Amino acid sequence: MQNPNLSDAGASLHNNFCRTDFDTSLLTDIPVPIYICGLDGTITYFNKAAADLWGREPETGIEKWGGAYKIYMANGDAFIRGFNPIRKAMQTGVVEKPIEFVLERAEGTLFNVLVHITLIYNEKGIVQGASVMLIDVTEKRKADSHSYNAIIENVERKRKLIRSTEDRYQKMIDEVEDYAILMLDREGYVLNWNRGAKKIKGYAAEEILGKHFSVFYLHDDREKQLPETLLKYAQANGRATNEGWRLRKDGTKFWASVVITVLHDDYDNLIGFCKVTRDLTERKFAEDRLRHNARDIEFRNKQLEEYAYIASHDLQEPLRKIQVFSEMLMENIDDKASVIRYMDKINSSAGRMTTLIKDVLKYSQLSSTDELFEVADLNEILENVVLDFDLLIEQKNVKLTIGKLPVLKGIPIQLHQLFSNLLSNAIKFGGSSPEISITAHPITIDDRVDSAFFKNGVPYIKILFNDKGQGFEQEYADMIFKMFKRLDNTPGTGIGLALCKKIVENHNGDISAKSEPGAGTTFSVFLPLI
Question: Is the pTM of this model over 0.85?
Answer without folding.
Answer: no
